[in-house]
Structure formats: structure tokens, C-alpha cells
Amino acid sequence: MVEFSRRTFAAAASLLPLLPATARASPGASWSRLAPMPPNPTAWHPAIPVGKPHWRQLGLAGPVAGAHAGHLIVAGGANFPEPAKTSNRPNALGKVYWNDVFVMAPDGSWLPTTFTVPNSLAYSACLSTARGVLVIGGEGFLNGPNGSALAQVRKFADVFYLRYHSQRRAIEREQLPPLPRPLSYGVAGIVDEVVYVAEGADFYALDLDRPGDGWRTLPSWPGDPRSVAVGAAHNGRFYLLSGRAQTSAGWQFYRDAYAYSPRLRSWRRIADLPWCVTAGLAYPTADGLLVLGGDRDLERWNLIQERTALRDREPKGSPRWHEHNDVITWIHDHHTGFTPEVLRYDAARDSWRTTGHFPGPPPATTPAVLWREHPVVVSGEIRPGVRTPVVWRLG
């Protein structure tokens, strides 16, 4: 592992633009598949058939993903890799969090690498910058892969740049000041070299040109607290969309959306989404945002949560426990997937419209990546407990 000194790297990075361009795919552009994710190489537990002839990448939810110096970097992520055992079928490991790092070259091929990051990590907020992929928070385990049935998942306050040095053929990691609190499922965007992060009821900011000043806590949006929201920066504003929260009235899926202006230091509510896009993806475009995927099926979500609560009140393995667990399994197995429609937000008109459909199983819980100015969807979750190794590119 190579660590740049902050002073040396900051001097070089100051000569580069901080953010890539907005998505340049036209409304009529088509989707194409890139090479699928390689299999995880780390054989850390005998219940996972790493290295067997049939071993393939199942896909990763919540991976670290972003573009830097022409390369696509993907790290960490979480899945259920035990054969025939998914999120609610009895398994030894629970949800597995990984720490492998994959790098796609500019020509679209995956490099033969065995890189890792120190901790297993998923559900971070991720942003592509000229200084590296900015990774904010997340959850997982210290010191490598582990499973939620073996140890307690912990949330992280860590913030760092992750980058691939092609000359050294090495993954490099540069630490930034930690968040005011550990968090996962946060969303982030960069405006004028300041990164903004929203999660729960909190809204934070860090000046990436002056990281030593630390994080600032800013007034939050004029709406309910939420997690698993969608966020992006466009034309000098940070946008916060959708999300969900558990309230006294039960689970709420939100359609409201907000824009924060750093210049005015204020929020304003923008047009509500046609439906919630919790855990979806948002890309900045020339005139607004491109939003896709995510979950909007509140009825099914509440049914799963209700049955899970009933199951967890029973002794594990008892007949009543199995009865409730079988219902949850049935719901998951017959889940029809996430939102297929693709939305566009016109910032000038403050309006939403449907602009097509995602070409495959719609994704959730994966970062929105602009790679070579084109939207890319890297792996992700396609229904509860099920991931995909497919990598999509628009345009």
C-alpha cells in the first residue's frame, strides 16, 4: 500500500479540475454492457467456494465505485456468497462484506489485480474526483472480509481518496479528516471543491482544498430525516432526493426533493418525484439530473419488515420462526425487482419526466459513476439479497 503525502499530492491535484464533466449521453442514447465484474479472489472462509471452477462474481451491493485517471475502480461491497443460501435462507456467514479492489482499464478490460483495502466496506458515499475516488463513511468490518452472522457490523467515519497508480501498479489511499459521526448509506456531492454529505437528519461539509479545517455541520433540509436517499451535485447546487425512514407511523418512502445552494446557504424544495427512488442513482447532466433504479414498493417493503419483526420475536429455529421465515423467503423469491423507469429532472423548468427504461434488472444500492463522461452502473442489488455482476454504460 502506497500513501501519498497530502502536501505533495495537493500540489499536483491543484492543477487539475476536481470533478469530471456532466453526463453527455443524449436522451436517445443506448445502453451497452461492459465486461462483468471479476470474481472475488480472497478465500477467507471454507463456506465460500473461492477458486472453484464454478466460482463467479455474484455481484456486490454498496460497492465503493468511481473513476480516476481513466480507470474505473471498484472495491468492497456486500453479498451472500454461500451456495444456495441467500439473505433469509439459513447460512453460516450472513451478509458478507469484502475488501477486494478491482480496476478496469480505459480499454474496458479488468486488470489482473489482487488489491485490497484494509477493511471490508460497503454502502459508502462515493464521488469521482481528479484526486481519486472520494470514499465517505460506510459499514463493514476491520481487517478484512467477514460476515454479519459471525461479528457485529460496524459503521465507519473514515474518509479517504482511493486511486490506482498505473506506473506503480498499486492502489493508493489518502486519509482525510473523519466525519463527525460514523454513517452508512449517506449521499454526497461536490460544489466548488466542497463536498456535502447528507444522512439521517445531518448535513455536513468539508472543503477539499482545506481539509485540515475539518467538517462543518450545516442546517439540514426542511423535510423529514431519511436514509438510503439519492444525491448529486448540479450547476452549483447539491440535490437530495427521496429516501426512507422508520417513523412512529411505520416506514415512510419519500418522494420529496430539495436543492441546497452554498452561495445562498439555504435549501429550497423542488418538484416532488413521480415516485420514490430510495437507494437509486442520480447523475448530473447538462440541464439537470438523470435518475434511475431504486425501490418504490412501500407495500412490499412493509410486508417484509412486518414478517421479519414477527419472525425475530420467536426462538430461532422454532416452528413459528420457520413459518415466518418461509413467508419472507417466498416474498423475496417472487420479488419483481426495482423501478425500471428512468427519470430526467429539468432544473430550469423544475419538472420530472420519464425518459425510458433501464435495459436490465433495475439496480439499487450502488454508486452513480460518470466514467469518461458517460453514466456507468456498476453491479448492485437487483432484488432483496440478489446482486448482479453486470456493468452497464449509457451512450
Which helices and strands appear, and what pairs or packs with what?
Elements: H1 6-13, E1 31-34, E2 64-68, E3 71-75, E4 78-79, E5 96-97, E6 100-104, E7 115-116, E8 120-122, E9 125-129, E10 132-136, E11 139-141, E12 146-147, E13 154-155, E14 159-165, E15 170-176, E16 187-191, E17 194-199, E18 202-207, E19 216-217, E20 230-234, E21 237-241, E22 244-247, E23 250-253, E24 257-261, E25 266-270, E26 281-284, E27 288-292, H2 298-312, H3 319-333, E28 341-346, E29 351-357, E30 368-371, E31 374-378, E32 381-383, E33 386-387, E34 391-394
Antiparallel strand pairs: 1-34, 2-3, 3-6, 4-5, 5-12, 6-7, 8-11, 9-10, 10-14, 11-13, 14-15, 16-17, 17-18, 18-19, 20-21, 21-24, 22-23, 24-25, 26-27, 27-28, 28-29, 30-31, 31-34, 32-33
Helix pairs in contact: 2-3
Molecular structure report:
- Keywords: Signal.
- With 395 residues, the protein is mainly beta.
- It has one domain: 6 Propeller (Neuraminidase).
- The chain contains three helices and 34 strands.
- The chain has helices at 6-13, 298-312, 319-333; strands at 31-34, 64-68, 71-75, 78-79, 96-97, 100-104, 115-116, 120-122, 125-129, 132-136, 139-141, 146-147, 154-155, 159-165, 170-176, 187-191, 194-199, 202-207, 216-217, 230-234, 237-241, 244-247, 250-253, 257-261, 266-270, 281-284, 288-292, 341-346, 351-357, 368-371, 374-378, 381-383, 386-387, 391-394.
- The strands form ten sheets. The chain has a four-stranded antiparallel β-sheet, with no helix packed on it. Strands 2-3-6-7 form a four-stranded antiparallel β-sheet, with no helix packed on it. Strands 9-10-14-15 form a four-stranded antiparallel β-sheet, with no helix packed on it.
- The longest helix is centred in the C-terminal third of the chain and has 15 residues, at 298-312.
- The chain is globular and about 60 Å long.
- The two termini are 35 Å apart.
- Residues 1-20 have low confidence and may be disordered.
